[in-house]
Amino acid sequence: MPLRHSGVVPELAAQSHLHQANSRLSTAVCCSVLVQAAITSAACTVSPALGAAVEVSLSLALSSLVNRRCSAVDHTAAHVAAIGWAMAALVASGYPTRVIGGIGAQCFFATLLPQLDDAMGECIDNAARAIKPNLAMHCSLAYIAEAA
């Protein structure tokens, strides 16, 4: 299925984050010591979404290990910023659905419409899973768009 839209199933994303964090923990610790001079800071996410899965404690431990600061970043805004540049993005998940605008090279953003409806993302995810029960880390929005 070609991925023409962006989005993930939140529960599966959390499981994937945990699996990846746990499987790469020793590598991260080793690399942080080896490239200590190049590390300027560590980051951990703040609400909404996946706070525990992204391991705030891991970020704090790594930043302490290399004697650097640990910064808190907005998880969903970081996903939008990873696009590179966008005038506005709809962040729909099982957590607060928001419209984020003004992402640019400076990573400046403003939440244009905060917390539209917690149920919107759950509705999208549940509909995609009803159509395809084993939907794993695929794009629920893309799947529904193609199924329609």
TrEMBL record:
Q: What is the protein name given in its UniProt record?
A: tRNA N6-adenosine threonylcarbamoyltransferase
Q: Which UniProt keywords apply?
A: Acyltransferase, Transferase
EC id? 2.3.1.-
UniProt enzyme class: transferase
Pfam families for this protein: TsaD
Q: Which residues form the Gcp-like domain?
A: 5-132
The source organism is Tremblaya princeps
Recorded GO MF terms: acyltransferase activity
